[in-house]
């Protein structure tokens, strides 16, 4: 198979061993460029099993990570849905509000769901509460509105099955017009669950979706990565979807950890040349690693996989 995702030789870039305070795992980060830095909002799991979010920042997005000495966002006990921790953030800059939207999994005793926080500075955080009921994960917003509406991609679980859905809202509070965007594909590598990885990536040819696909094998689920392309103006229209996975667990740190055989992309930034992306992915619910991928390689592959 043609390998378009290229691992960084210094992987994993962040791990519990390199963290500023004791923790069990550092993984599944949201990523964004802010103030001349790449900010990673990392999911940190402590020894009670709950997760919170902490910023690590770097000028080039690859080396010399400055890790905050203390948690950036702890679960807020005034918000019932955060009782069991907060996890797996995705970050989008909302062009009309000029604010960063952090969509994250808040773990309520009733199950995981997607909540929203807005921020302008990554110091003051405005909690907007839950967007959709449980069980739902892997949510991210598009940076722009379509026909006056915000658009959310997310992954509810229905009868144990997980398809990727798309929903619309006029105000970020009321959500509707729910539709399945990318279903699981029976018999294939992404047959049991699929979920959004990084927030949608805008290109001249449409929005690239990097997603994870799960197949339950006799022993464990395997998390691999596929690509899809959505229409530029009408994102619920799927133009292409790769038949094969494009990235899969291979290295030791992608095969063994708190979980086994998991690569879980959650964020990206453009490299300085704007042609390549730095993809941040969680590995086995324990560390964070980087892969590089060029936008044109992804688009060329998607052109061969039109629907
Ligand atoms: C998913 C999420 C992720 C996790 C992944 C692999 O359901 O809970 O946080 O990384 O499973 O265990």
Strand content: over 45%
- Heteromolecules bound: beta-D-mannopyranose
Derived structural class: mainly beta
For this structure, what is the CATH class?
Mainly Beta
Topology:
Elements: E1 6-7, E2 25-34, E3 37-45, E4 51-58, E5 66-67, E6 86-94, E7 99-108, E8 111-119, E9 126-130, E10 136-141, E11 150-158, E12 161-162, E13 164-169, E14 176-182, E15 193-196, E16 201-203, E17 206-216, E18 221-230, E19 238-241, H1 252-255, E20 263-270, E21 276-283, E22 287-294, H2 295-303
Antiparallel strand pairs: 1-22, 2-3, 3-4, 4-5, 6-7, 7-8, 8-9, 10-11, 11-12, 11-13, 13-14, 15-17, 16-17, 17-18, 18-19, 20-21, 21-22
Bound molecules: beta-D-mannopyranose (BMA).
What does this structure look like?
With 307 residues, the protein is mainly beta. It has a single domain (6-303), classed as 5 Propeller (Tachylectin-2, Chain A). The chain is 4% helix and 49% strand. It has two helices and 22 strands. Strands 10, 11, 12, 13 and 14 form a five-stranded antiparallel sheet that branches. Strands 15, 16, 17, 18 and 19 form a five-stranded antiparallel sheet that branches. The protein has a four-stranded antiparallel sheet with strand order 1-22-21-20. The longest helix has 9 residues, at 295-303. The protein is globular, with a radius of gyration of 18 Å. 44% of the residues are buried. The model has no long low-confidence stretch (mean pLDDT 97). The site of beta-D-mannopyranose has 9 residues, from β6. Beta-D-mannopyranose binds at residues 28, 87-88, 223, 259, 262, 264, 282, 285.
């Amino acid at each position: 198979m043609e390998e378009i995702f290229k691992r960084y030789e210094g992987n994993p870039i962040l791990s519990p061993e390199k963290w500023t305070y004791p923790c069990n795992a550092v993984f599944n980060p949201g990523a964004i460029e802010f103030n001349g830095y790449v900010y990673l909002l990392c999911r940190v799991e402590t020894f009670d099993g709950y997760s919170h979010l902490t910023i690590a920042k770097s000028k080039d997005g690859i080396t010399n990570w400055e890790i905050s000495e203390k948690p950036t966002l702890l679960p807020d006990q005034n918000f019932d849905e955060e009782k069991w921790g907060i996890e797996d953030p995705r970050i989008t800059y909302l062009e009309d509000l000029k604010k960063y939207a952090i969509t994250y999994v808040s773990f309520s005793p009733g199950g995981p769901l997607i909540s929203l926080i807005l921020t302008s500075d990554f110091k003051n955080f405005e909690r907007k509460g839950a967007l959709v009921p449980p069980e739902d994960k892997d949510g991210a917003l598009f940076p722009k509105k379509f026909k006056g509406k915000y658009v959310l991609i997310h992954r509810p679980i229905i009868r144990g099955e997980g398809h990727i859905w798309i929903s619309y809202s006029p105000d970020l509070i009321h959500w509707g017009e729910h539709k399945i965007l990318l279903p699981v594909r029976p018999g294939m590598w992404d047959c049991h669950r699929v979920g959004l990885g990084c927030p949608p990536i805008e290109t001249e040819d449409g929005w690239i979706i990097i997603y994870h696909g799960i197949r339950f094998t006799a022993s464990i689920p395997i998390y691999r990565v596929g690509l899809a392309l959505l229409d530029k103006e009408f994102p619920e229209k799927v133009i292409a979807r790769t038949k094969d996975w494009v990235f899969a667990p291979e290295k030791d740190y992608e095969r063994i950890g708190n979980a086994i055989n998991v690569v879980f992309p959650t964020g990206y930034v453009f490299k300085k040349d704007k042609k390549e992306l730095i993809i941040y992915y969680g590995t086995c619910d324990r560390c964070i690693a980087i892969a590089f991928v060029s936008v044109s390689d992804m688009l060329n592959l998607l052109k061969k996989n039109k629907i």
